[in-house]
Amino acid sequence: MGHPLRPGNAQDHHPRRPHPLSARLPRFDETVQYDVIRDCLMPEEQIDGVYSSESAGIALCGITNRRVILLDTAFPGGRAALITAPYSRITTVSYVSSEDEPIFSRTVAIQVGRTFYEVTCRGEEQAAEIHDLITWHLID
After folding, report:
1. Is 39 part of any domain?
2. How far out from the chain centre does Cα 89 lie?
3. Burial class for 108, CB neighbours closer than 10 Å (0-12, 13-18, 19+)
4. Residue-wise pLDDT tens digits, 26-65
5. Quick one: which of 14, 15, 31, 138 has the most CB atoms within 10 Å?
């Protein structure tokens, strides 16, 4: 006699819903930046988007189906670092704004462990794409 059907069993699994931006993916600003992210992909990893950042430290934000990749140009010692943040390690994604800015600003903060990485986008639409792509991966 089998076990009763429990939530989460394979028989009860709903198909993964497509990402709301899937018809327009992958998104990217510049081919050179896209190539940086493409060159560090693992097998079966796909790029959802690659975005330039105007932040002081983070110059590039790549979003794949498995992780977020950040190019930190303000790494200690005058160096740059390509940072990998698997979705399992990202705890929050949020909009960051000052008092005089709307809450849906052009800056997105990504929390990995106790560290926050800020990505300042070229516009609010780009920030919304980053926020929504990461959020979709976190809650799906």
Report:
1. yes
2. 12
3. buried
4. 666 667 788 889 999 999 999 999 999 988 889 999 999 9
5. 138
Summarised one tens digit per residue, pLDDT across range 61-98 is 999 999 999 999 988 898 999 999 999 999 999 999 88
Total domains, the chain = 1
**What CATH number does residue 33 fall under?**
2.30.29.50
Q: Measure Cα distances from 101 to 35, 40, 105, 117 in Å.
A: 33, 35, 7, 19
Residue 50's Cα: distance from chain center in Å?
Answer: 9
Do β-strands 47-52 and 27-28 pair in parallel, antiparallel, or remain unpaired?
Answer: parallel
Cα distances from 99 to residues 81, 96, 102, 105, 129, in angstroms, run 32, 10, 8, 11, 23
Look up the domain containing 85 and give its range: 24-139
SS3 74: strand
Distances (CA, A) of 49 to 15, 21, 28, 75, 124: 23, 10, 6, 23, 15
Question: Considering the entire predicted model, what is its pTM?
Answer: 0.78
- With H, G, I as helix, E, B as strand and everything else as coil, classify residue 131: helix
Beta-ladder partners of 8: none
Supply the DSSP string of 8-53, one letter for each residue. TSGGGPPPPPPPTTGGGPSEES-HHHHHHHHTTPPTT--EEEEEE-
